[in-house]
Structure formats: structure tokens, C-alpha cells
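Why does residue order matter? Because the sequence determines the fold. Keep that principle in mind as you read this record.
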Amino acid sequence: MSTLIAYATKHGCTEKCAKKVANKLPDAVELKNLKNKMDVNITKYEAVIIAGSIHTGQIQKEIKNFCKDNQDILKQKKIGLYICCMDEGEKAEKQFENAFPEELRKVAIAKGLFGGEFNFDKMNFVERFLVKRIAKVKESVSKIKEENIDKFVEKF
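Structure:
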């Protein structure tokens, strides 16, 4: 089975998780970063995983547009959805709901909340300032949840 992982990442966490998922899946996987503005022909894939990260409460516009533009085709495929975010519990679940259209959430066979990272080396001054001020984090930190990635792959 051929699988596409279509993702958007700002500081690399979603891409890191996409590679982890790809390495755990048994079949051929192709990774496409939607931030690179490439056309993606999803008709050639049997399965599609869509992933993005949450910044200021929202997923990247590239993910929203990809879902909207391909919704009818995606509903006919085996799909998985995941987000990377630093929030947990109900707040993370709400962000997941806001990230993807309800029609896709209903048909997704695997859904995941993979945690996230604050990578100060990849942030600009304003981003670092806001993270320090709002999240009260003073240095880079990774909260990627390997067990959630494993559960996602198992369901998928």
C-alpha cells in the first residue's frame, strides 16, 4: 500500500514526527511538506496521513487548504490525522478538532496528539520572547509522545 504523509511544519517538530511515523509503517511512504508549495496528486496513494503543528491556537493554513481542496477524495481513502502541540488534555483535543474538518475526523482511522517542541534555535526573537512570556519556558524543550506515535501507527 502506498501512503502519503502531507504535513506542514514551522520549526521542524511535525516533520520529525512524520519521519518517525514513516519509519514505523511497513509499506512505501512518501513525505510532502506542504509549505514547499508543491502540487500533490493524492489520487495515486491508497492512504494519506495529514499532519500539522499548532501555533497561537491554529494549524497552518496549508493544512486547512489541503483538507478543504481535497476533502472529497480524502473521504474515499484510508486517512490518519495528527497534530503536534504543547498543550495537553482537553485543550489539545479542542485544537485537534479545530485543525481538521469534521467530515475528515469522522472517517479517519487513526488520530493523534503527538506532543510538541519549543526549539529556541529555530525561533526568531519575537517567537522566543512570546514563548518565554506566555508558556514560561526559558530554553528548548521536547515533549514528543513516542507512545502516542506508536498507538497511531498501530491503528493505521
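The chain is about 40% helix and 25% strand.
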